[in-house]
UniProtKB/TrEMBL annotation:
Designated gene of the protein: galE
Required cofactor(s): NAD(+)
Protein name: UDP-glucose 4-epimerase
Molecular-function GO terms, alphabetical: UDP-glucose 4-epimerase activity
Keyword Signal set for record: no
CDD domains attached to this UniProt entry: UDP_G4E_1_SDR_e (cd05247)
Family the entry assigns: Belongs to the NAD(P)-dependent epimerase/dehydratase family.
Organism: Tamilnaduibacter salinus
Record Pfam families: Epimerase
GO biological process: galactose catabolic process via UDP-galactose, Leloir pathway
Subunit and partners: Homodimer.
Listed pathway(s): Carbohydrate metabolism; galactose metabolism
Keyword Translocase: no
C-alpha cells in the first residue's frame, strides 16, 4: 500500500515505519520534527511539515496515491496537558480535524489512529474493555477522545474505514538497539529511570505513594514498542482484506507498579540511583490495564515481548547508545 505516516519521525511512529517498509509498503512520513528526528525515518521518504498547515497536507496527499494514513503526530504528555490544555486541543484535536478534512478531500479510504488508554479516565475496574464509556480525566485523553469521535463520524458519512488503537504504556526499544525513544526532556517512567541508570539524570521521583495498589504507587500496563508496531501492520492488513472498522486496546493485560518498574531498572542495570517520593501528579489514574481479547481475536495479534525484563533491557541498551551518540 501507499501509506502516509504522520509523526513517523517520533518514537512509536519510527518503529512502525521500519516494520511497514520491511513488509513492502511504500511509506511517506509527514512530521514537523518538533519531537521527532530525521534519522528515525530510515528508508522512508520524509516530508517536513506541520498538521496545522492544510496546504502542506494537500501537497503531500496529492499525486502519491495514498491509500492509508497512520496518524501518530500529537503532543503526548499527560501532566503538560493539565497545565496547558489548549496546546493539546490545538495539536491533537484541531490538527486531527485538519488531517480528516484533507483525507476526505483526497478520498483516502483507510486510517489507523493512535489513541490511548487515557480516554477511559478512572473506571471502577482496572482491566479495561473497549466498550467502557469514555470519561477522560485529563485534557490529553479528552483531546484524543474527540479525535476518535471525529474520525468515526466522518467514517459513518463516507467510505473511510479505520482502526483505532488504544495504546497502554509504550516502552522499550528495538532489540538491536538501533531505534528507541529519543524524546527531549522525556517524562515517561521507564525512559526517565533508564536515564538515571545511564547517568544522564541524577535521580528521579515517584509521584504518589498513597494509591490503593499493592505498594501504593500507580499501576500501568507496559507494552513493548515492537509488539505495538506489529499491531499497526496487522491493522492495515485487516483493512486491506476488507475488514470492518475497529477499536482495539493495545496492552498485555497485566500491570506493574511504579516501584516495581524502578526496581527492575535498578536490577537490570546494576545501578542504584536515587529515588525520592513526592505528591501525586495531576491527571494520573490509579491503575490501567488492557483487556486485549479483541485485538487477539480480530487481528490475530500475539505479543513477542511480554516481559518487563525484556522491555527494560532493550530500553537500557538503547539509552546507552543514544547517550553516546546523540547530536
Ligand atoms: N508513548 C506512549 O506511551 C503513548 C501511549 C498512548 C498513545 N500514544 C500516542 O502515540 C503517538 C506517538 O507518540 P510517541 O510516544 O511516538 O511521541 P513522539 O513525540 O515521539 O512522536 C510524535 C511525533 O509527531 C510529530 N508531531 C507532533 N506534532 C506535529 C504536527 N503538528 N505536525 C507534524 N508532526 C508533528 C513529532 O515531531 C514527533 O515526531 C501519539 O499520538 C501519542 O498520543 C503514545
Ligand atoms: O518520573 C516519573 C515518571 C512517571 N511516574 C509515574 O509512572 C506512571 C506512568 O507515567 P508515564 O510513564 O508518564 O505515563 P502515563 O502518564 O501513564 O502516560 C503514558 O501512557 C498513556 C497510556 O496509558 C499514554 O496515553 C501517554 O501518552 C503516555 O505518556 C505514572 O503513575 C506516573 O506518575 C513517576 O512516578 N515518576
Amino acid at each position: 500500500m501507499n501509506v502516509l505516516v504522520t509523526g513517523g519521525a517520533g518514537y512509536i511512529g519510527s518503529h512502525v515505519v521500519r516494520q511497514l517498509v520491511a513488509a513492502g509498503h511504500d511509506v511517506t512520513v509527514f512530521d514537523n520534527l518538533s519531537t521527532g528526528y530525521r534519522w528515525a525515518v530510515g528508508d522512508a521518504e520524509l516530508v517536513v511539515g506541520d498538521l496545522a498547515d492544510e496546504s502542506a497536507l494537500d501537497q503531500v496527499l496529492e499525486g502519491r496515491g495514498i491509500e492509508a494514513v497512520l496518524h501518530f503526530a500529537a503532543h503526548i504528555i499527560v501532566p503538560e496537558s493539565v497545565a496547558d490544555p489548549l496546546k493539546y486541543y490545538s495539536n491533537n484535536t484541531r490538527n486531527t480535524l485538519n488531517l480528516l478534512r484533507a483525507i476526505d478531500r483526497h478520498d483516502v479510504r483507510h486510517m489507523v489512529f493512535s489513541s490511548t488508554a487515557a480516554v477511559y479516565g478512572m473506571p471502577d475496574q482496572t482491566t479495561l474493555t473497549e466498550e467502557l464509556p469514555l470519561a477522560p480525566i485529563n485534557p490529553y485523553g479528552a483531546s484524543k477522545m474527540m479525535s476518535e469521535r471525529m474520525m468515526m463520524d466522518l467514517s459513518a458519512a463516507s467510505d473511510l474505514r479505520y482502526v483505532v488503537l488504544r495504546y497502554f504504556n509504550v516502552a522499550g526499544a528495538s532489540t538491536d538497539a538501533s531505534l528507541g525513544q529519543a524524546t527531549p526532556e522525556a517524562t515517561h517512567l521507564i525512559k526517565v529511570a533508564c536515564e538515571c541508570a545511564t547517568g544522564a539524570r541524577d535521580g528521579m521521583k515517584i509521584f504518589g505513594t498513597d494509591y490503593g495498589t499493592r505498594d501504593g504507587t500507580c499501576v500501568r500496563d507496559y507494552i513493548h514498542v515492537e509488539d505495538l508496531a506489529k499491531a499497526h501492520v496487522m491493522a492495515l492488513d485487516h483493512m486491506a482484506a476488507g475488514g470492518e472498522s475497529q477499536v482495539l486496546n493495545c496492552g498485555y493485560g497485566r500491570g506493574f507498579t511504579v516501584r516495581e518498574v524502578i526496581d527492575e531498572v535498578k536490577r537490570v542495570s546494576g545501578v542504584d540511583f536515587p529515588v525520592e517520593t513526592t505528591d501525586r501528579r495531576a491527571g494520573d489514574p490509579e491503575a490501567l490495564m488492557a483487556d486485549n481479547r479483541r485485538i487477539r481475536q480480530v487481528l490475530g495479534w500475539e505479543p513477542d515481548h511480554d516481559d518487563l525484563t525484556t522491555i527494560v533491557r532493550t530500553a537500557l541498551a538503547w539509552e546507552e547508545c543514544w547517550q553516546r551518540n546523540k547530536q
